Amino acid sequence: MKIRTRLTLLFTIITATILFIFAFVIYYSASESREKEFYSSLRKEAYTKANLFLNAQVDYKTLQEIYHNNRKTLNEVEVAIYDTTNKLLYHDAIYIDFVKETPQMLQEISDRGYLEFYQEKWQVVGVKYSYQGVDYIITAAAYDESGYNKLETLLKNCGLLFLISILFIYLAGRLFSKKTFEPLRDMINKATSISANNLDLRLSTPNKKDELFELASTFNQMLDRLERSFDAQKHFVSNISHEIRTPLSAIIAELELSMNKERSPEEYKEAIGNALLDAKKLARLSNSLLDLAKASFDTTTIAFKPVRVDEILLDARLLIQQINPAYKIDIQYDGELMVDDSDHKITVKGNEYLLKVAFMNLMENGCKFSSSHQVMVSIGASSGKLLLKFTDNGYGIAKEDITNIFTPFYRVESQASIGGNGIGLSLTQRIIQIHKGDIQVQSKPGVGSVFTVQIDHLPTS
Ligand code: ADP
Questions:
Q1: Distance between CA 305 and CA 303 in Å, rounded?
Q2: Quick one: pLDDT at residue 457?
Q3: Hey, whose CA ends up nearest to atom 12 of ligand 1?
């Protein structure tokens, strides 16, 4: 069942219940007050007749005549008067005699002084009446026709009003819920039409700043993010193709050129050397992509264990210097870390291979982008975190480039002549994020750059 129908039904049921209780209370109190009022008028009639008969000495016949005359137009009260020996002294209409007074009934009236009860639909009162020291028992009975008619009309009116109200409430509920859910329906229709081909479409946001506005805005924000990541993916793929195509074309051109005609052994050697250089570039690119994939996909499969960061840094330095012996990498400890019991401050819970890749990128960049080919790595600790600083006195990075250097394939144009593929820093940032750490950069063109990495170290054992 749709929420709209469910809400309408719920709304109708709740209102119907309230209306029913309301109508029931009105009917019930009207019925109660009818009964009370009628007993009271019966009591008055009993006293009046007793007064007329005993006090005013109106004779039997005249009283009966009054009764008969009145009966023609209204439901006259039927009164009977007994003495204490249960002898009938007066009766309005012996032939009607609806109330059969038994000796027990008269005795009960005499004992209690007053009695009210029903005989079928007739209401009866019995009263003990004293006149000149003598007790009499009077009964008065009648059917409250007009009272019951009024009650019946009230019941009919209440029922009719109830049904009309329910119908009205149901229709109003449907209309109201239709109006409320209209923007939602529009959103659903629009959302259904959004696919990967038209991710630029957005839901229209309602004018009022209500929950639907929030829903539409949140959905649109999600689409913004999706569109951005889709675009990034597209860019990524086209960048990869470009990065692969360039060295491949160079290799092909080089080999084709040397195949064109007979060449000297030196020329062949040069061509093979150039092709090898491009092939190595390709191999590096594919390794970086593989590492990025490792760090980006299912991170739960990556093994984490306590590892000493200084040892990883030493390994990274060794590997870099094997490829580029000209690179100078100094590793220094903060004074505090020289103390014997500070091992835990140099140890983090991490993946050795990935951390080595990250540190190698930072070390290599520091050397690559400085004329001195030198980088200084300092290992420190502060408030539960291991602090690594990679400082170089190189070319530095302009302010407008700093925000982009962590984007895959981004390379500062002025340094395009220096080898690289633009994946290193994005991969490094991803690896630090996996280790729940943080990487920041401070740089000034012509002065140098400092890359600061922070990762939680192990607590004191
Ligand atoms: P790559 O080094 O392969 O070009 P990276 O992702 O490692 O790719 O770096 C992206 C860009 O950031 C580099 O091309 C370079 O312009 C800039 N960069 C990174 N590190 C430094 C640095 N230490 N000094 C100056 N520029 C840097």
A1: 7
A2: 92
A3: 405
Ligand 1 midpoint to CA 89 (Å): 126
Count how many residues are written for the chain: 461
**Which residue bears the tokens 């659903």?**
188
Which residue's CA is minimally distant from atom 20 of ligand 1? 365
H or E segment to which residue 450 belongs = strand 448-456
Write out pLDDT tens, residues 280-291: 989 988 888 888
Which protein residue's CA is at the shortest distance from atom 16 of ligand 1? 412
Residue-wise over 441-452: b if at least 16 C-beta within 10 A, else e? bebeeeebbbbb
Q: To which residue do tokens 């309005």 refer?
A: 92
Q: Ligand 1 centroid vs 309 CA: distance in angstroms?
A: 23
Q: Are β-strands 374-382 and 328-333 bridged in parallel, bridged antiparallel, or unpaired?
A: parallel
Displacement of CA 388 from its chain's centroid (Å): 42
| pTM > 0.85: yes or no | no
As a whole number of angstroms, the distance between CA 289 and CA 294 comes to 9
- Express each pLDDT in 174-207 by its tens digit: 998 888 888 888 889 989 998 888 888 888 887 8
Which ligand 1 atom is nearest residue 392's CA? Answer: 23
Nearest to residue 377, comparing CAs of 451, 447, 454, 442?
Answer: 451
User: What DSSP string describes 26-80?
Assistant: HHHHHHHHHHHHHHHHHHHHHHHHHIIIIIS---HHHHHHHHHHHHHHS-PPEEE
Helices (H), 369-451: 399-402, 424-434
Q: Whose CA is nearest to atom 21 of ligand 1?
A: 365
443 φ/ψ sector (left φ>0, alpha ψ -120 to 50, else beta): beta
The closest-lying atom of ligand 1 relative to the alpha carbon of residue 396 is: 25
Q: Whose CA is nearest to atom 25 of ligand 1?
A: 396
Tokens of 349: 């819970």
Ligand 1 centroid–CA 411 distance in Å is 6
- How far apart are alpha carbons 48 and 37 in whole angstroms? 16
Q: Return the best residue to mutate from 425, 429, 432, 450 for the ligand 1 pocket (most ligand atoms within 8 A of CB).
A: 425
Q: What are phi and psi of 94, to 5 degrees?
A: -60, -30
In the chain, what is the straight-line distance between the N-terminal and C-terminal CA atoms, in Å?
A: 59
The span from the CA of 386 to the CA of 392, in Å, is 20
Q: Give CA–CA dist 306/455, Å, rounded.
A: 12
Question: What residues line ligand 1, using a CB cutoff of 6 Å?
Answer: 361, 365-366, 369, 392, 394-397, 405, 410-412, 415, 420-426, 449
The pLDDT mean for the chain works out to 89
Q: Which residue has the least CA distance to atom 23 on ligand 1?
A: 366
